[in-house]
Amino acid sequence: MTYYHYINNGRGPKKLFIGGLHGNEGKTSFHFLKDLKKEDFSNGQIFIVNFDKSEYISTLKKNYYESAIGRKVISLIKTIKPDFYIELHCYNIKNFKKLTSKDRMNFDGVPPLIDIGDFILVSSVSPYIRLKYLQRETICKTLEFPCFDKLEDNIDMKKSINRYNDFIKLLSIAKSRKNFEKEVVAKYPNESNLAIKYTKEIFGSDFPIF
């Protein structure tokens, strides 16, 4: 059953947090989304959605958005028109090096995910949906946590969970694009420089960063 939660914090940016986009990721993302409360957010309208298990199709592929879940994602975006669009994913820890490799552009057509520590990875969202369905100024982030059912002993779960929640909080409390950029650059300066570099590579130098 799809989890849906709406928070009305008055006038302010519209934020869409969405998990369980493909495969069994919803099992992991629900752990984080269910705990988000009214007081965790700045002013604005907040929409939190977590999907159940579905067929795994990469969100980098156009046919994902032709699937049942993909069509729901597009419908949510068109209806809400979010100022912040955040996808919560999880990944098999065995793929960590591949996902963060500089060669990812060659085999996936997108830059590597950015490691912010404790096995937490961050990137923009799929170029397909970023360019076609989201507003130009929308803050777009993909957050990757090691999938609960594919964890290994070398992962400190507490540190990873804290790191993941910490980045989610940067997005949830941000009052605007300018506010988010200021906070994320202050906390993750090197990683932010990489994000700016990759944004320019994919979307061009005149496209909004992050």
Structure description:
The protein has 210 residues and is α/β, with parallel strands linked by helices. The chain has one domain: Aminopeptidase, CATH 3.40.630. Helices cover 38% and strands 21% of the residues. The chain is built from eight helices and seven strands; from the N terminus they run E-E-H-E-H-E-H-H-E-E-H-E-H-H-H. A seven-stranded mixed β-sheet has the order 1-3-2-4-7-6-5, sandwiched between helices. Helix 7 (177-187) packs across helix 8. The chain is globular. It starts with a strand and ends in a 7-residue tail after the last helix. The model has no long low-confidence stretch (mean pLDDT 93).
Separation of termini?
32 Å
In which order are the strands of the major sheet placed?
1-3-2-4-7-6-5
- Amount of helix: 25-40%
**Class per helix and strand makeup:** alpha/beta
> What's the gyration radius in Å?
16 Å
Major β-sheet profile? 7 strands, mixed
Q: What is the name of the CATH architecture? A: 3-Layer(aba) Sandwich
Could you name the ranges where pLDDT drops below 50 across 5 or more consecutive residues?
none
Reading the helices and strands in chain order gives EEHEHEHHEEHEHHH
Shape call = globular
What is the highest CATH level, the class? Alpha Beta
> Strand tally, please?
7
**What would the average pLDDT be, to the nearest integer?**
93
Number of helices: 8
Strand residue content:
15-25%
